Amino acid sequence: MWSPALLLVLSAIILPASTAIVKEGSTCIVTPISDTPAAVALRSIGAVPPTERDLNPEDNPYSVSKPGMPGSLGHYPRPEPGSSSFQNQPISRPRSQPLTLKDNPLEPRQNRPDDTPQILSAFSQCGKDGTIIFREGTYHIRQVMDTTDLRNVSIEIHGTFVWSDDNLSYWRQNSFGVTYAGRQTAWRIGGRDIAMRGFGKALFDGNGQTWIDLARGQGNLNGRPISLTVWHGTNVLIDGITWRMAQFWHTFIAYSQNVTMTNLDMVTFSTNGQSSVNTDGTNTWNSRDITISNWTVKCGDDCIGVKGNSTNVHVSNVVCHESGAMTIGSIGSNSGQPDYVENVVFENITAVHSSNAAWIKTYPGTGHVRNITFRNIQFEDVNQPIYVTSCICQPNNTNNNTPLGTDSYQNCDSSRLPISDVRWENITGTSRYNVAVGIHCSASAPCDGFHFSNIDIKPKNGGTAKVLCSNIKNQASSGLQCTGPCPGSHPQQLSGNV
Ligand SMILES: *[C@@H]1O[C@H](CO)[C@@H](O)[C@H](O)[C@H]1NC(C)=O
Ligand SMILES: *[C@@H]1O[C@H](CO)[C@@H](O)[C@H](O)[C@H]1NC(C)=O
Ligand SMILES: *[C@@H]1O[C@H](CO)[C@@H](O)[C@H](O)[C@H]1NC(C)=O
Ligand SMILES: *[C@@H]1O[C@H](CO)[C@@H](O)[C@H](O)[C@H]1NC(C)=O
Ligand SMILES: *[C@@H]1O[C@H](CO)[C@@H](O)[C@H](O)[C@H]1NC(C)=O
Ligand SMILES: *[C@@H]1O[C@H](CO)[C@@H](O)[C@H](O)[C@H]1NC(C)=O
Ligand SMILES: *[C@@H]1O[C@H](CO)[C@@H](O)[C@H](O)[C@H]1NC(C)=O
Ligand SMILES: *[C@@H]1O[C@H](CO)[C@@H](O)[C@H](O)[C@H]1NC(C)=O
Ligand SMILES: *[C@@H]1O[C@H](CO)[C@@H](O)[C@H](O)[C@H]1NC(C)=O
Questions:
Q1: Are 328 and 359 contacting, i.e. CB atoms less than 8 angstroms apart?
Q2: pLDDT above 90 as % of the chain
Q3: Closest listed ligand to the CA of 295
Q4: Residue 21: inside a domain, yes or no?
Q5: Secondary structure of residue 238 in the 3-state scheme
Q6: Is 198 part of a structural domain of the chain?
Q7: Which of 153, 218, 402, 465 is the most exposed place for a label (fewest CB within 10 A)?
Q8: Ligand 2: which of 116, 170, 171 to mutate, most ligand atoms within 8 Å of CB?
Q9: 465 within a domain of the structure (yes/no)
């Protein structure tokens, strides 16, 4: 009889895992470790029950939350009381193959394959003037990845990347910082002239339900990693990738220039009733010349967020479900640092059952928001379709028992962060309640250069919609027929007619 230990040693010697990379010229071709003969042999060895998942926040150095950090107040859409339509919706996965090792309860943890070393090896061998091809199959990622020194590389992904969820402490302790609000990421990609293509076949599975359960509605749980961050990248293309159940935000674009992200499909939505806040589709920050096109996103938080120091951002042909849809902000959270957002176009956007459609949210901070266009936005069942607030996340009542987003706000008139030259053109659809527009600009820095045309928003249950506005310069010639003021205390999320 072969002993399992001997088999393990033999298989490692005879069939080393490194056979999974084949290098031909400047091209690295990678096969999942678990598909190599060595791995198949390893898998047949042991039958040890899995260790308990490391899900106890008490063991965790990061268990203290930081209320008031950007986005920590959820703004996910709320179901109608008594409606079950937006929870427990099945998450469709594009493939039938098993996505995680949880599917094999007898697999011992220590024998679980880890493709991270060979993925990193492929990046170091072929990440400059080269091509990296990930063949079909499932790649298990059990370690953080920092691939930020790339140059003239084509990354072609035909398989599934699954991020492990049996040691969340590992990810929380080791994910890379991305500066913004103390957030972290599991994978940073950067350098120059990078194309990452998934051909509609690449699937990134972050095991997000485990993270949603751990966070228990506290979206900004420290160390909860962004799936993929473009970090100090120039001339970057990301195309044709599907995400299912990302750990936190699906993507983030920071300190980057000329980034194009097209044909992406993202679904991260809790299946068990815990809210899936902070699962944004993407956020841009300290970046310029960004093109986002042809996305479908269902996420429970902002779909596309344009954050501080973003310039020249063009977003088109995006369909968002259960989200905050198109968002400028949140910005201005750090009173010592100005945030500038300029030259942003959102066009040909659809928002379904979402909290907002065209939204600008700032803290009472410094900087400016200038030259923004929302054009051809159609939506159905959106809580507050057009919403502008100068005092996001400034609740008077920080009691955690207050339902998310229903607080009233303070310092709304002290913000020195002007919002100007914003156009809303051809904005049509249904609001959940009787409010089409809520705009509260700061009295200290009134909004200027607001223009509205072809706004047609009807409450889904009939009647006419209110248009609430405060502190808009030249309001009479803005094209908007305001029906009344919008108090600073106007809630971020409505829960009924006002
Ligand atoms: C980019 O890399 C390819 C090899 O993948 C090489 O043929 C080409 O010359 C490189 N381009 C530049 C500008 O160096
Ligand atoms: C989880 O990761 C932490 C941090 O890297 C490590 O110290 C610990 O041994 C790991 N636990 C298990 C059960 O793998
Ligand atoms: C921007 O990046 C794309 C690749 O995504 C590249 O084709 C294009 O030349 C770059 N534009 C500039 C101005 O460098
Ligand atoms: C967007 O999708 C449409 C329809 O599938 C396709 O024709 C178009 O080429 C895509 N645009 C980009 C930039 O990939
Ligand atoms: C935004 O850019 C300004 C000016 O370049 C800089 O002072 C500020 O620190 C930046 N803000 C952030 C949050 O990085
Ligand atoms: C406003 O933004 C648009 C789109 O990015 C750009 O084409 C235009 O030049 C900008 N206008 C000004 C005055 O900067
Ligand atoms: C947006 O839709 C309009 C009207 O259908 C069309 O003319 C325009 O080309 C579209 N823009 C983009 C960037 O797809
Ligand atoms: C208005 O937007 C809708 C989509 O939301 C689009 O179908 C229509 O062509 C747009 N109208 C004009 C005049 O661009
Ligand atoms: C918030 O609290 C301040 C001081 O406690 C009070 O003056 C203000 O009216 C409150 N604002 C709202 C919107 O309730």
A1: yes
A2: 70
A3: 4
A4: yes
A5: strand
A6: no
A7: 402
A8: 170
A9: yes
What digits encode the pLDDT tens for the residues 239-263?
A: 999 999 999 999 999 999 999 999 9
Pairing outcome for strands 287-298 and 257-267: parallel
Q: Is the CB of 130 under 6 A from ligand 1?
A: yes
Residue 313 to residue 70: CA distance in whole angstroms? 21
Both tokens of 231, joined, read 């970090």
Q: Which strand ranges, in their side-by-side order, compose the sheet holding 225-226?
A: 176-177, 184-185, 225-226
Which among 135, 153, 158 is positioned nearest to 190, based on CA atoms? 153
Name the average pLDDT for the chain: 83
Give the whole-angstrom CA distance, residue 38 versus residue 33: 8
Q: Residue 298: helix, strand or coil by DSSP? A: strand
Higher-scoring residue by pLDDT: 216, 422: 422
Torsion sign across C-alpha atoms 400, 402, 403, 409: negative
Single-letter amino acid, residue 414: S
What CA–CA distance (Å, rounded) separates 427 from 397?
Answer: 33
Q: Which amino acid is at 362?
A: T
How distant is the alpha carbon of residue 290 from its chain centre? 16
Sign of CA dihedral 160, 98, 211, 403: positive
Indicate the pairing of strand 184-185 with strand 176-177: antiparallel
Give the chain's largest Cα–Cα span. Answer: 89
User: Angle at Cα 377 formed by Cα 376 and Cα 379, nearest 5°?
Assistant: 140
Cβ of 316 below 6 Å from ligand 8 = no
How do residues 344-396 score in pLDDT, each as one tens digit? 999 999 999 999 999 999 999 899 999 999 999 999 999 999 999 998 877 66
- What span, in angstroms and rounded, lies between the C-alpha atoms of 65 and 258? 35
CA of 349 to the centre of ligand 8 (A): 10
Q: Is 211 helix (H, G, I), strand (E, B) or coil?
A: helix
**Which residues on adjacent β-strands are paired with residue 225?**
184
How far apart (Å, rounded) are the C-alpha atoms in residues 402 and 492?
13
pLDDT tens-digit map of 277-329: 899 999 999 999 999 999 999 998 999 999 999 999 999 999 999 999 999 99
Peptide bond connecting 275 to the previous residue in cis, omega within 30 degrees of 0: no
Cα of 130 vs centre of ligand 1, distance in Å, is 7
Residue 313 domain-assigned (yes or no): yes
CATH number at residue 347: 2.160.20.10
Most informative mutation of 253, 337, 342, 366 for ligand 5 (most atoms within 8 A of CB): 337
3-class secondary-structure state, position 254? strand
User: Which ligand lies nearest to the CA atom of residue 308 in the structure?
Assistant: 5
Which amino acid would we find at residue 340? Y
Domain that holds residue 45: 12-52
What's the total number of domains in the chain?
A: 2
CA atoms of 486 and 489, how far apart (whole Å): 8
The owner of tokens 């003969």 is 37
